Amino acid sequence: MSNQKLFNVAVVGATGAVGEQIIGLLEKRDFPINQLKLLSSARSAGTTIKFKDQDITVEEATPESFKGVDIALFSAGGDVSKALAPHAVEHGAVCIDNTNAFRMDPNTPLVVPEVNISKVEEHNGIIANPNCSTIQMVAALKPLYDRYGISKILVSTYQAVSGAGSRAIDELLRQTKEALEGNPVNPDILPVGSLPVKHQIAFNAIPQIDKFQDNGYTLEEMKMIRETKKIMGDESIDVTATCVRIPVVHGHSESVYVELKSDYELEDVKKLLSEAPGVTVVDDMENQRYPLATEAAGKPDVFVGRIRRDLGNTKGLNLWIVSDNLMKGAAWNAVQIAEYIAAK
């Protein structure tokens, strides 16, 4: 290992929920780091974060922050990525971006390592991490796509509040206490911080994640639709989505109906999924074992269960897919890409 190349790494959005997970994974995975730069907004600059027994002071992210940086991991919101990633590229860094800023840009690879890692080679300085709910779905569906082909995907999501940031977690906990104590519940953030109408999330399900588009779908739903086609490299797949925020802290759950292009044996499907990289099958009806958000929290895998044949269509298949949205849905996916770049 002594002659292994070491990299200067920057984490943008270091004090956020995903940034903290990325830093933890870089340490846990013993990523080959020469120097680690932790960057954030001016508001959070000056904070210190521990990394391998050293205290690193978080600096304000500016265009000049990326001098000498080899790999920059962005998770500070789309506007920050749009403003700073091009500067990082100019300074010679490869950017792995966790936001929506570049995902649908035709010149930017959209990568889930278990699905299309070779696309990393096509980057022009920026590699996009897909939406968290897309990542877990395509990781589970890719082996089925390769074997049988897929004509249609119908997904309903049950998404954790952590996907809307740490303030949304605080809001859920506060509202739960208010409701249990019989006090008025005051919604402040969800469903969308920048929109005027707010809804209670405690003891509720909100069928809106992100802003509504002209076609009646939310941006989150359109992300899943567009990104799935791009990652699979197949515009012919018919995808529809309904995305719902539920009062869970960590872990997105998805009910997925998928129509395959050819007939299948259920046992073959289960075997394919159990052998798929990054996928763990939890499917034991007799003992009531199936994927749960509480059990997926903190783990890097995508969990699949409730695997059953559709009753109306012999090529139809129903799945329940669960994953930690901050881990595989963001931080781990980004660090996997960084590890691939480092190994190259």
Could you give the distance between the termini?
A: 15 Å
| Helix content percent band | 25-40%
Mean pLDDT: 97
Largest sheet descriptor: 6 strands, parallel
CA-based shape: globular
The helix/strand series, from N terminus to C terminus, equals: EHEEEEEHEHEHEHHEEHEHEEH
Unreliable residue stretches: none
Q: How many runs of DSSP E, i.e. beta strands?
A: 14
From the helix content, strand content and strand pairing, which structural class follows? alpha/beta
Number of helices: 9
Q: Using the CA coordinates, give the radius of gyration.
A: 20 Å
Keywords for this structure?
344 residues, six-stranded parallel beta sheet, 14 strands
Quick synopsis:
The chain is α/β, with parallel strands linked by helices and 344 residues long.
